[in-house]
Protein: Phospholipid phosphatase-related protein type 1
Amino acid sequence: MMSPCKLGLTGEIRPRPTSRSDEVSDVDEESVRSVNGAGTIINVIVLGKMASDNMQRSYSIIPCFIFVELVIMAGTVLLAYYFECTDIFGIHIQGFFCNDAELMKPYPGVEENSFIPPLILYCVVAAAPTTVIFIGEISMYMMKSTRETLIAQEKMIVTGECCYLNPLIRRIIRFIGVFAFGLFATDIFVNAGQVVTGSLAPYFLTVCQPNYTGNECRLNHQFISNGNICTGNRVVVERARRSFPSKDATLSVYSAVYVTMYITSTIRTKSSRLAKPVLCLGTLCAAFLIGLKRVSEYRNHCSDVIAGFILGASIALFLGLCVVNNFKGVHSTPTKRKTEEYRSLPLMTFPRVESPLETLSAQVEHAFITAFGQNVA
Structure:
């Protein structure tokens, strides 16, 4: 085994110069440590910048939600309650002809005897989109491929020193809250239209039971504007005066269009291209059949159902496109712009990292020159 020291000509002991491979390994380790340190600094800077970009501090979002949005929502629900359950808004008394064939259809019975009872219909209309949105948002947040897109579209809101609003919670509250607001707003529109127009149902003369032998109905073409001519059940007669637009058709189409827009705009399926069309078309078809069933049971006219379809679809399209931005994140465009700006920045704005090959070459050359000079000396 060779000693690391050698004896010189004068008897002095001089350290044995290390081999070139040892010098190269020492230089390589120092280069790797310097590069790793620089890389760690860069990673910390980039991660800190990304974290700051995905977070937004706001102290007004919760007060605005409590004192503005919840107040508007409560007022909408209260107005819908007054339309549905009270007699504050009087129904317009519309005239008729005693021998109008369009108003002599047989009475189909109370609403609870219809093909789809109102209670079941309203529960399905309210629960189906809520369930789809809830499951869809949680599924997208759990999947890695869609979670990155969701986080890029939504910023985490910091409302204080300890309060954070997760993007998942924000999206669920926003989409379901807007749907609920639109549902009550649609009900208000329908009730307002029925109260203002006082349109007569196809079975109106059957439940009105006017006195055809009286002076008012003696002439076939005499228009009756007297609301006290009916002798039937007052509650049923008032219900027969609220036909335009069809409430069941309006609410069902509103719910179907809203959930269809959510499915087509949010859910991504790479394995099957027919799953979304089948689900969306099935939902729209169910709403369409509900409207047709109202006509076939003589509960509404065709014009009532068509007007309900147009009204419900219009409200859903307005809320989906203008209020929730087609179910996209509110920060999707600025985030993309910031990413492009970072990519276009010149390299000199970042800490310069010397190439490990350049460092290794310079240090090896310096060590070689030093060793050669010592050997010559």
In short: Confidence is low (pLDDT under 50) at residues 1-15, 41-52, 331-342.
